[in-house]
Amino acid sequence: MLVVLTGIPGTGKTTVANKALGELSDEGIKYELVTYGDIMFDIGSNLGLVKDRDDMRKLKSDEQKKIQRLAGVKIGQIAEEKDILLDTHCTISTPKGFLPGFPEWVLRELSPKIFVLVEADPEEIDLRRSSDKTRKRDKDNIGGIRTHQELNRSIAMSYSIFSGCTVKIILNPQGRLEQAVAELKEVLS
Amino acid sequence: MLVVLTGIPGTGKTTVANKALGELSDEGIKYELVTYGDIMFDIGSNLGLVKDRDDMRKLKSDEQKKIQRLAGVKIGQIAEEKDILLDTHCTISTPKGFLPGFPEWVLRELSPKIFVLVEADPEEIDLRRSSDKTRKRDKDNIGGIRTHQELNRSIAMSYSIFSGCTVKIILNPQGRLEQAVAELKEVLS
Amino acid sequence: MLVVLTGIPGTGKTTVANKALGELSDEGIKYELVTYGDIMFDIGSNLGLVKDRDDMRKLKSDEQKKIQRLAGVKIGQIAEEKDILLDTHCTISTPKGFLPGFPEWVLRELSPKIFVLVEADPEEIDLRRSSDKTRKRDKDNIGGIRTHQELNRSIAMSYSIFSGCTVKIILNPQGRLEQAVAELKEVLS
User: Fold this and answer.
1) Domain that holds residue C16
2) Complex ipTM, two decimals?
3) Interchain CB contact of C170 with A (< 8 Å)
4) How many domains does chain C have?
5) CA dihedral B29, B30, B36, B40 (to 10 degrees)
6) Can you give the pTM of this predicted structure?
7) In sequence order, what are the residues at sequence separation of 6 or more whose Cβ sits closer than 8 angstroms to the Cβ of residue B168?
8) DSSP string covering A117-141, please?
9) Does residue A172 form part of some domain?
10) Which of A111, A160, B106, C133 sees the fewest Cβ atoms within 10 Å?
11) B100, B143, C107: which is closest to A157 by C-alpha?
């Protein structure tokens, strides 16, 4: 059982995931939270292509694709043994445009059962990003954030054609965390 | 020749279809109207999985997928002998998210020539749904209806990549039935 | 290296392309600008299916698909020898609906590396179209133009799943030509 969890930076995706998995764990439902970026970074480091996390964004698209595919293979292996919630990106914003998080060769490898999109209002995302001082972020404007979320919806629908997965949109605007967590728990139960 | 006709509940899709097929029949153009849900219900009943139509929405996604695939095979057989207008759903709204009406294995089986989306204003759809007392419906709010129609547009475009079909959007707001019927007739002629 | 350049009539796509390629050429970066429509017209003429460019829009969808595929093969051959910027349509508006510019069999043939969408405001596009007297154009209204651009974004995201290409959106509203040109140059560098 592989559930994919996506959401652009600032949607609160990881907070929702951690809270939902904690509550589910208390109820005896175990998922391992695997972060695609961590697996990619491990592989990229081992290949000597990156030194820190921000280097990942600066990779050439060919290098990104190679690491992305190798990470897909590794996650597929993990998913054969346990239920996984895969924290990742629907698309990756690069200087050359949006790169699909799940090109065909990754999609067919992983074959997710449910694809979750966590979304928030573009204005809130912009605000959350600017007040987050813990890592460097792109200065997308609000229009760019809206576009990114819309494109993610589009491509998620396409992903579902390949794997037959459902696409679940979970809204996580300010003050709705409990409901977003409840919705993710329902998806995972 | 297989033309797929989709539209979420409340768009008036079936009304448009019946009127267009009636008028075309008078002009000597014959299409058989096949309802995917009917074929799926027949198969589900035969398999002992459902008793009435509303049970179909409550099926686990694995069961839904199996029935969906078997229905695709059956419709493909019918389409070898006559022209079919296939009344179905672009995506199906389930508790786990939107399920594609045409995952790859159904799409490649059927290979539609034209994919029609009948749409109406979300507010009108909401109104039509609430005043329709003949069957139980989900209480989607207007935003949810808008989202569902937008996602259907997205996934329909993706379907066209696999089959090379055209995607035709027919608007059917209040008071525009004659024109919607004329547009569907043009598509089928 | 194959970069696809799309944009509906009136976005100024070709102007942006010519200016970007001219400046890049001065910097020693050479791309050949190939127009899909030209290749299709050559093939259609040779097959005796069309006499002038406007006939191309009136072809039956089967004929269009055949010519489209043959053009894909030819462009694939050219791309093996040089870097190409392929000027084409993301989708083609026909009486039977939107036809994908890159159905699976063309997409797998060409496998573009970057897919560019040049966009402009629907109102401006409408204005540009009506004041352009050099060729016959469809009288899409502004809503239709907006829809066409949105559907193109959707399908471009789907294309990226097949080829792993990035999707780059370049906005070219009135007065922003220099920036649009700079963005295209960055994509091609």
Assistant:
1) 2-34+81-188
2) 0.89
3) no
4) 1
5) -170
6) 0.91
7) B114, B115, B116, B117, B183, B187, C96, C97, C98
8) EEE--HHHHHHHHHH--SS------
9) yes
10) C133
11) B100
